[in-house]
Amino acid sequence: MKPRQQRMLAVGLAVLGIAIAAGLTLRAFEDNMMFFVEISDVVAGKHPSERNFRIGGLVVGGSVHREEGSLDMSFEVTDTACTVPVIYSGVLPDLFREGQGVVAHGRMGDNGVFVADKILAKHDENYMAPEVAESLSKHQQDIQAAVARGTEGCNPDDS
Amino acid sequence: MIPEIGQFAMILALALAAIQTAVPIVGAHRDDAAMMGVARSAATGQFVFVAIAFGCLTYAFLTDDFSVLYVANHSQLSLPTLYKVSAVWGAHEGSLLMWVLILAGWTLAVARFSSGVPDAFAARVIGVLGFLSIGFLAFMILTSNPFERLVPAAADGADLNPLLQDPGLAIHPPLLYIGYVGFSVAFAFAIAAMLSGDLDRTWAKWTRPWTTLAWLFLTLGIALGSWWAYYELGWGGWWFWDAVENASFMPWLIGTALMHSLAVTEKRGLFKSWTLLLAITAFSLSLLGTFLVRSGILVSVHAFATDPERGYFILAFLGIVVVGALLLYAWRAPSLDSDVGFALLSRETFLLLNNVLLVIATAIVLYGTLSPLIYQMMDWGKISIGEPWFNFAFLIPTVPLVILLGMGMHAAWRTQNTGTWLDVLKLPAIIGVVLGIVVPLFVYGRMSVMLAVGCIAAFWIVVSSLVPIIRSLRREKGAAGITRSALGMSVAHVGMGLFVLGVTVVSAFGVESDRALSPGASTEVAGFEFEMRGLNNVTGPNFTAIEAEVEIRKDGEYVGTVRPQKRQYLVQKSPMTEAGIRAGLDKDLFVALGDQLGNNAWSVRIQYKPLIRFIWLGCLIMALGGLIAISDRRYRVNVRETAKRKDPKAQEAAA
Asked: How far apart are CA B46 and CA B127, in angstroms?
């Protein structure tokens, strides 16, 4: 073999070795891939139980409550068909508002309450996370009405 | 009238770009000096017309011409003048115009400063740059015209997104684009070399300063973006592995690999085809970044209203550029390589490892960025890849990278004697290990494996990089000093070391806590006492704000006062958080107002960020190193010498 070919072989083997090692490590680290679960699926219990996931939808009007002077708060998120209560403690993003789109990271706690450790709201008036927009349009309920009344007509098993 | 002039100038620029592409390339092929001569004048003309278009759009912003749709959507009467100017590139259409202006600027610079390069070669380079210009100008004229009229004209504009109303953001996009687009020069040099089939070491010598220049702007642009995100967007984080951040980071990683690979090609005539491939990849990743940002295909904090239709055009253009370049590569590359050898212990080996590790790092970032898309296409579910994944995965190639860096610098070309090499490395290694253990343990009072690895690597790089500088300072009279090129390398690597130190310390010892505070109350975070002294109403030009006065004390002693604001912008009716930061080289203390909790209390996010300034300081020093390297004598001497020999060489190259 010419020196150049030997070199290429050595480099190729090194890359392959590192790639395999990296692949195995990353595989073990897959917990950090967070799945997006639609609200209706959450209500139907079709969500990961032992790890974090994301939910997204609209904040139900009048559902935001916080204890006076405390960081603890709760609100409800709807995909226009079903609704999930969320609790959170901490600072909220600037554009978090009733009737607006929101994405929450966290996991399901006891009694069907989603415990969020991170809340994301959009950064621009005209922008909504594509996955949220898709989830909302899929359920095709009247958005205004859904925001106003909260849950009703939720048949999670149909979806 | 002015906007129409702008639009007309854009169309003329497109026509000139077409001439700039076709005539010189055909001329170079036919060895026709007159046709090749068109390159420089067409490039100048194209720049002038793009600059006129850009000037017209700026004028429309400054004069509040709300009959222009783009101005009406992104400006407003009471917007401060600085932001009226920066609003020009604050959204899609204008930022594309800036992209084209910068591309035309680079082309002009190449036309002006390439007198040492053979005419045929320069003609091809300018022609390729003209082709890229055609793509973007056509894109603008067909899908994203910034001069589109609004009938009837609006009385007042919709205002610039409040997030973008910040001095940092006024200059972040131009710097980033200069870097991004700058890789088009290396790309054009690579294509020109493959078109002519003439790729010798001089090719690498010509390409190197341009690549380093683009790289240093990209470094500054990314650092500035990170700094802006830190105080404006991210509630104190400095890097989010967001899709758009990654889009600028991938060209940086490959650009860094390219700089190092070019060194080998220039000095030793090795890695030729690999260098070409990197040059193609760096610019392709820049285009991919533009596609990701502009198509809105990925979920991102940067996804200000986007339009998927436009994505297809960029995707098609990306396809043409990448496939074309790779076909040319497949045709030409096999004939390029030489069989010069090098020993296992030599600078070549270390630079090869540098390249392999940087490419792996890029692949990891690319995988993490695109996998949500892949999962969705395969119907495996909608995932998002969190910061922890990136933080962890990215360390796999970069830990060996930074450790090898300190060793490779001291290895000689071709072959290195092991004994002398170890002698040089001994002292930096000892200092690195001692400082790397002592600093976290005694200054910050804690230790862990990753912490030790990060700190040792950081001090090891810094000390190891200082060795050539110290040696040069202590040399005997009359002995040759360090070259600018080597000095630049040392300085840039010191910057890298400081960056690693900043990242390690702030990740390990940074504290972040959400608290409830009301006037008169105080809370303790990381040993500092934060007392809210009062709340005031403040009025800005286009916003009103509530400003908190927070006094910071340590052990009863006054440290400083910060004034975080919660702003309400009047036109867009959107709230914005302006953090209060007590900045220092050793640490930042960061207070941001959240929302009203009732009872006069506010939620606040308080952060203690030790050494965070080292992150951006390190980037600045890296860029400075690049600047020093470009100023090396041999690039200037080279230009003069080749200029003398120009005529015979030009004929030879064209033949």
From this structure: 12
| CA–CA dist B316, B293 (Å, integer) | 15
**Which residues of chain B neighbour A89 with C-beta distances below 8 Å?**
514
pLDDT tens, B101-155?
999 999 999 999 887 888 899 999 999 999 999 999 999 998 889 999 998 888 8
Where is pLDDT greater, at B383 or B93?
Answer: B93
Predicted ipTM? 0.77
Q: What is the DSSP string of B578-614?
A: E-EEE--SSEEEEEEEEEEEETTEEEEEEEEEETTHH
- A104 shares its domain with A50: yes
Closest CB to B352 among A11, A66, A90: A11
**Is A109 within 8 Å of chain B by CB?**
no
| B40 close to B59: Cβ distance less than 8 angstroms | no
Same domain, A70 and A144: yes
Which of A18, A29, A37, A71 should we substitute to test contact with B (largest number of B Cβ atoms within 10 Å)?
A71
CA distance B604 to chain A (A): 7
Please tell me whether residue B526 adopts helix, strand or coil conformation. Answer: coil
Nearest to A22 among B371, B396, B515 (CB): B396
Instruction: Give the pLDDT score at B638.
Output: 52
- Is A60 part of a structural domain of the chain? yes
Q: Which domain holds residue A132?
A: 34-152
The domain that contains A51 carries what CATH number? Answer: 2.40.50.140
Choosing among B165, B235, B595, B596, which should be mutated to test the A contact, i.e. which has the most A CBs within 10 A?
Answer: B595
pTM of the model: 0.90
Q: Which residues contact A124 (CB under 8 A, 6 or more apart)?
A: B161, B163, B303, B304, B305
Query: Is a pLDDT exceeding 60 seen at residue A149?
Result: no
Most confident range, picked from A66-80, B116-130, B225-239: B116-130
pLDDT in tens, B608-633: 999 999 999 999 999 999 999 999 87
- Interchain CB contact of B261 with A (< 8 Å): no
Is B518 in Cβ contact with A2 (below 8 Å)? no
| Residue A125 to residue B572, Cβ atoms within 8 A | yes
Whether residues A115 and A147 fall in one domain: yes
